[in-house]
Fold each of these.
Amino acid sequence: GQEFAVAAATVGSNAVNKTQLDAKTGLATDTVAGIVEKALAAELTSGTADKFPDALTILGGLTISSGTNGYIKLPTWMGGFTIQWGVVFVSLSATASVNYPIAFTTVHSVVMTMASASFTAQASNYIDTITTTSFNLTNKSPSSNADFNWIAIGVV
């Protein structure tokens, strides 16, 4: 192949040769500017390489659906963890089937709280039949219909 030789650069607008470039640019550290190597997705996921991801790699796979019922899904390199939330109305002494906005592959936890009703101390409201697509929420209040807020955590 053809080579292009560059002499020693002495002025800011001159080209530099490889020896000069190598002498002035080392690897970046926590305190020194320099050259960084881009991490591959597999290296980022494993966390073993001392390399840096680009913005697309960091944010790629981050998905958000905001609203009363919604979710935030973290990228695969962060484990693909997903937090989903919503509100469901459940009539007095009834059970509602609640579908997640998106299906999980693994569900780790589902939690509910009451939003708009006052219950007696004896009320036993509960969640059961938890699957990757839904759960059942039972309102055991002896006196009130209610909206229930819920949060589910898992992997999509």
Note: The chain has a mean pLDDT of 82.
Amino acid sequence: TVSFSFSHLLLALSLNFLALIGALICLFLLMRRHTSNNVAGMTLILLLIFPTAFFLAAVYSEAFFLFFSLAAFLFAEKRNWLLSTIFAGLAISTRLVGVFILPALVIELLAGVPLRQLPKAINKYKGTLLLLSFSLLGLFIYMAFLQKEDRKSVV
């Protein structure tokens, strides 16, 4: 059995709050790149007043997943593929559906490439594609964590 003290709860809530702040900053920056400041600000307000937004303030992985996912896309748009890969791996390590960030990042990488030039573009970006594939390490970390937790529950 695992027991939590008040200090553990306070630490968990603090970390979750920091992840939520990071997610809001990333969402604002992403939205500002495509829209006005007013629309970006309204997006944050709508996210925070949405009925299920309380999950972002509770001790769940939602705020972390949102932060890591948005950061991965923000850095992908800035063409900083190393940070994008790191944040994608962290997003994948928080939940299984995070693996779908990888194809989206590949699409972001190859966006604007005409279909007939796709083989050349893939060859041109093979280093970046290899780098992005390292984000799957997050999946293996997540699987190892689940395996460890499963063994604990059996014993």
Note: Residues 107 and 124 are 15 Å apart (CA to CA).
Amino acid sequence: RARRARASPPPGRLCERHRGARSVSGTRGRVAFGCSVRLWRNGMVGVAGGLEGTNYSASAEVYDPESGTWAPTGSLTTARALQTAILLPAGKVLAPGGYTGAALVSAELYDPTTGIWTPTGSPVVPRAFHTGTLLPDGHVPAAGGSPGPPLLPGA
């Protein structure tokens, strides 16, 4: 059974997959295809990257379900879409891979206490449309996805 967040998302969709597309809406009105969305331990929701129109985005935002408000936070160091986001035990968020015309072989680490993204160890294989899972020993294997151009809706 799926776990629910503490409060409902804002009117519209917080993040919904529809044939591979994700959209983010709310007070800020930011819409992005292929952004990563992660629920943090403190109940906040982080949204990063994506494709906004025809531009890859490095922007990141935080949604507070208690107040129903969005706030900008530190930008990714590399604009990217179709990355995954993994919550690590210390509360940081790992965002490996992604796509910017080609699958990426880089990763970034977000610290919600500082609002800063920093480059970190690179994946072995470039991936987009993939998943990552935190294992009990702290490793995060990536699985699936595509090392080449992903199939985009309408393509």
Note: Residues 1-25 have pLDDT under 50 and may be disordered.
Amino acid sequence: PIMINLQIALLKMSVLVLQLTLATSTMPIQQNMAEIEGKESVLTDTSSSTIKVYLTEMAIKHEIPIERMLWIAEKESQWETDRVGDIDKVCPDGRQMRARGLWQIVNCWHDISDEEAFSVVSSTIYAIPYLKNKPEIWSVYRYCQKWFTKTCPF
């Protein structure tokens, strides 16, 4: 319990640091931040630190727990925006399964193009309603207590 509490405290501290970074971010980071609502928007710097700042901003704007948003993104893709997973599985209709991008959006269940799935901004806009209202669609959230017994913050 002490170790878990310490890890949760460290994670909360990281969130505060991200919020502070967001509040005092330098102009180049702000220039890389896209207009949140536009489909044509892009995040030109896809380093994990910039993605974390962007996701923190989005979480605040859309009233999603910051910890939830950052946890799911990190555990699903390890901040690799071009990651493709689950290729060893098959969709019910016989197509090869592909979990794509930061949020590992699965082609079997979601009608979103590869371009959108691999875009941090487009995929995050797509994921927001799920992150807010149905985070259990991500197995890392649904099985957090089982898979991450010592580090699960939920």
Note: The CA atoms of residues 49 and 57 lie 13 Å apart.
